[in-house]
Structures are given as structure tokens and as C-alpha cells.
Design goal:
The chain is mainly alpha-helical. It has 14 helices and no strands. Helix 3 packs parallel to helix 5, helix 7 (95-108) runs parallel beside helix 9 and helix 11 crosses helix 12. The radius of gyration is 16 Å and the shape is globular. The chain starts with a helix and ends with a helix. 44% of the residues are buried.
Length: 207
Amino acid sequence: LGTVLAHGATTAIPHLERVLALDPNDVDALSWLGQLRAHQGRIAEATALGERAVAIDPMSWLGHTTLAISSWLDGRFAEGLRFLGRAAEVDPTQSLLTEDFKVLVLICAGKREEAVALGGRLGTDAPRSVFDRLAQFWRHAAVGERESALKWMTPEALEACRWSLQKSWWVACGYVMLGDTETALDGLENAVQRGFLNHRYFGEIDP
């Protein structure tokens, strides 16, 4: 995970593959590699890795989240939401994270009212993580509430998001909804540089 954050997918993938060469049943490595493959657009491989992780450990919230991400990035939003629900069921300690994540998946699925309502239920004046900030950012951006959205994206939060190909893209999604194309493109460019190469998603599923 440290390699993913510091250097992006291209550098991290060989490390994860070496881990799996030593231990093909390492659930965390299977899950992280699956998520990176999904972001590269290699959906069949990502799904197979997630399914193997869940077969080895059905209680792995990370394995179910990998299946959620591979479904989402293949345009199968309903499946993605179902897997996120399953991830929260098997490990309730991760439910806040998966619910935050669900806000953006609902928006991508065209269910903005449901996303805004979920974001409202998750709302807090004391965000526990950058995921909390992102969920509130998306919630307000989805209905054009620019000032309310931007208060959640502090300079520190934006800098934290730039370390991650996922979060850079997620920030870009929020700025697109606010009509801030320049900032959105900066986030997307950073995500691509860190290994987000799922061109089909950008070109066909969520242009």
C-alpha cells in the first residue's frame, strides 16, 4: 500500500505480484492488485482477483470492495453498490468508509437524489478521514452547492488526495460537477500519471 501511495500503480504492481508468487493466497495482495487492474481497465483480471480473495476469505471487506470497484469501473453500478453493501456487512468497522464511497457510485449511476440523501445522513462537522470529506464534497457538488462543497476540500485534503490515483480521480469528479474544468483536469491528469488507465471508462462509461 505504501508503494501504491508513493509511486503509483506501475511501481506497485510488480511488488504485489512478487508477494503473490510467494503466497498465492495473500488476500490483501490479491485485493490491492485487483483494484489496480480495474483502474488499468483490465476488468476480467480484476474481477478474478477479487473473486479469489473472497473465496479464500469470505469475510474480507477489502475483497468485496475490490469486486465493487471492478464492477463500478465496468459500468455495472448496481453490482458495485451490492458489493459495497456486502463489504459493510462482513466488517461493520469499515461501514463508514464504504458508505462514503457509495455516495459517488450512486451519483455515477444517475441516482443523485439518493446520493445527496445518503451524504446528508453521513454528514458530520468533525470528519474522521479524507473519505468523509470526499462524501460531503460530492454531496454538495451534485446539486451545485459550490461554497458548501469547497469548504470540505481544504488544501491539506487536496494534497492528501494527490498521493492516490483513486482519490485524485474522485476529486476530479467533484470539480466536474461544480463546472471547474481546469481543476478537474488537473486531478484527472494526476490520476493518469499514477496509473489510472481505464480509457474505456473515461471514453464510454462516464465521459
